[in-house]
Design brief:
By secondary structure, this protein is of the alpha/beta class. It contains 7 helices and 10 strands. Strands 6-7-8-3-9-10 form a 6-stranded mixed beta sheet, sandwiched between helices. It has a 4-stranded antiparallel beta sheet with strand order 2-1-4-5, with helices on one face. Strand 1 and strand 2 form a beta hairpin. Helix 2 crosses helix 3, helix 3 packs across helix 4 and helix 6 packs across helix 7. The model has no long low-confidence stretch (mean pLDDT 92).
Length: 241
């Protein structure tokens, strides 16, 4: 595995329902960064993320996370994952949800760990509310608390800001940056191109193929575009695949 690489994907191929979703994906994510996996809906982002966390059946290729095969039992505590839909139980309070996931992970002092995770996502004032009573942004933060309670080194977040208004999206990205500044590595997928400005590096995915792996400034310089969406369109029109 490459020095400082946290995630390494080599020639990954995935089929779903007889359709090739990822024909040949290779990428590397380095430690301590916020990497955006951006592209249109249906382009293979969720499949790539599922492969990285080890819950997707693959056809061929390799996926290595923290030096271990994706899905390895030892990664259970080291990788946090949130799905597009809220990954908590609607009939439980925020606190009971996070404590439940802490117990599943075998976290020592799970009550205190749950409270710390809830505080990290700024939901302490809502800790006793049932998940079904939360707003969309609060649900996203509660799901993030459940992913954080095991103190993972890597966070893999699938469309965590989908459906949220710009203010809530900004607040979540500020939280992602704070987590990265504290030493975690984040892979965040999104179909909202303007979120590119929040990322240290961009992976642009279209039809299962990586069409760019670059910083935003370098991508804009290379394409002559004014923003990430313009750069994406310029690459598509240039036939990059």
């Amino acid at each position: 595995m490459t020095v400082d690489a946290v995630i390494e994907v080599e020639h990954l191929s995935v089929k779903r329902g007889g359709h090739v979703v990822l024909p040949d994906l290779s990428l590397t994510i380095e430690r301590g960064s916020v990497v955006g996996l951006l592209g249109p809906s249906g382009g293979g982002k969720s499949t790539a993320i599922r492969s990285i966390v080890g819950v997707q059946r693959i056809e061929s290729g390799t996926v290595t996370v923290l030096g271990l095969p994706a899905g390895h039992p030892e990664l259970r505590h080291r990788v946090g994952y949130t799905t597009q839909s809220p990954s908590i139980y609607a009939d439980l309070s925020v606190r009971d949800n996070v404590r439940y996931f802490a117990r599943i992970l075998g976290v020592a002092n799970h009550r205190e760990a749950a409270d710390r995770a809830i505080e990290t996502v700024d939901l302490t004032d809502h800790a006793n509310r049932h998940a079904r009573e939360l707003s969309g942004g609060q649900l996203s933060r509660a799901s993030l608390a459940a992913a954080l309670v095991g103190d993972p080194e890597v966070l893999v977040l699938d469309e965590p800001t989908v459906g949220l208004d710009p203010v809530l999206r900004r607040d979540l990205w500020d939280m992602f940056r704070a987590l990265a500044d504290a030493g975690r590595t984040l892979l965040v997928s999104s179909h909202v191109m303007d979120e590119a400005v929040r990322c240290d590096r961009l992976l642009l995915l279209r039809s299962g193929r990586l069409i760019a792996d670059d910083t935003l400034p370098d991508l804009l310089a290379r394409t002559g575009a004014a923003d990430a969406e313009g750069a994406f369109l310029a690459l598509v029109e240039a036939g990059v695949s």
